[in-house]
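Review session, final week

We close the course with one last complete record, chosen because it touches almost every idea we covered. It is Beta-lactamase-related domain-containing protein, a protein from uncultured Thermomicrobiales bacterium with 138 residues. Go through it on your own first, then we will talk.
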Amino acid sequence: MLANSRPVLAGLLALILLVPVAGSAAQPVSAPETWPTDGWRTAKPEEQGIDPAALAAVDARVPLETPDLSALLVVRGGELVYERYYGGQEPEEPINTRSVTKSVTATLVGIALAEGALESLDQTVGELIPERIPDGAD
């Protein structure tokens, strides 16, 4: 993988998610009450404020800049707005995600701290969701 391609692609994805469709008013997006489910509801990108041309631009760059990428899915407002597989990957096949889960978890923890859902990094899971911890767990 090209050493500097990850930041470029990450930046493009961030722009896609933050830039509304030209001419539309930016509106906050929230997950519908039906999310999460066993599957994703789908929507057209523009229905969720995402420019389809920006997604096409990212799609064109993926094989050149991130040849090891297996899949790219974009979810906004609880709806799948973009799904593309690369390098022979099929939707039904499991993907070795390696360490990406740690990055996503760290990002979500940062968001939870910023929004006040977490008071500190010293809180335990048992303090956060005591009703989900079995009796006698240590």
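Two points worth writing down before the exam:
The chain is about 35% helix and 10% strand.
Residues 100-115 form the longest helix (16 residues).
Good luck, everyone.
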